[in-house]
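hey so u asked for the seq, here:
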Amino acid sequence: MPPSCLHIDSIEKLLTTSSSLINPTPSVADLSFEEIIISLAHEPSDATTSSTTINALNEIPFLFLLNIRAIESVTIELIIPVPSVYLFPWHAISKWADLSALSITAALPNVATLAFGLVALPNLNSLKLDVEYLEPSNSGQPLPRHPSTHLTLLEVGFRGFAIFHWLATSRARETSIGTLALKIDEEDILPLMDYVVRHPGATQYLSISLYHRRYIHVLASCLMHFTQVLEIELYLKYLPTRGYKGCLQAICSAIRSRDLEMLTVYVPELPKGFREERKLLQLAESCLLQTQLEVVGKGREEESEEEDGYAPCVASCQRSWM
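ran it, structure tokens below
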């Protein structure tokens, strides 16, 4: 059986691994790992960082990745100088055709760098991204077709929403991203609109974490196109909490899915505790019910008296995030 995990979390481990695998002996020429984890951070302001560390990161001795095989999952977490971003062998991703899960937290040259890697992964079903693209998405780089038809889970962190411009170009039958998780802060989420307009029925489970109020109305416009979503989880993680009422009104009034079964709203500990939470819950229920009646229509409203579960269930919960 292949080794279970290759874990590189320090410059020392990086250099040791690189020296042993950059020119592999016959005994390790076909070395495979079930899981590869690369987690390295270099903060330029760190006064304790040695010159050896800086040189190692600038030279990026990662070419050994081209000599090994990843079978199940790869996690890449890199905080490195910009020149090193361009030296990292991102094309190694395309060699790991067996991957089922990929997670990247890093800066990448452009969307094309990621896209050409993804299209070579036919078994990929889970993709997690928190990425910054150093070049604009309209830089003229050609983009390949849509990635794996098996991709069922996509998580996009605070950065990297430009990937949705590319995903929007896929044909409907090539898109099966049933679970979508988004962390929304200050990056423009407008690319999401391109995707959901082209693929309104692809998502059944939607998780949204709001860290900033800036794009609430853009988000509401996007939600109108999630026409077959079954469950929505909404995490309100920004302060102050006095903006939650308007946020819930905008979001609940935008949900147009006839199939919605559950909306769960998570908030931090509120100043007035359960009483304030209850008011927010009632507001969400009222807005959502009104929207559902408008969407389904009067005929369905009359039938709903004999149908269990017509009105979506709305729940709320206070969490001590802050």
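DSSP finds ten helices and eleven strands in the chain. Residues 6 and 36 are 5 Å apart (CA to CA).
lmk if thats what u needed
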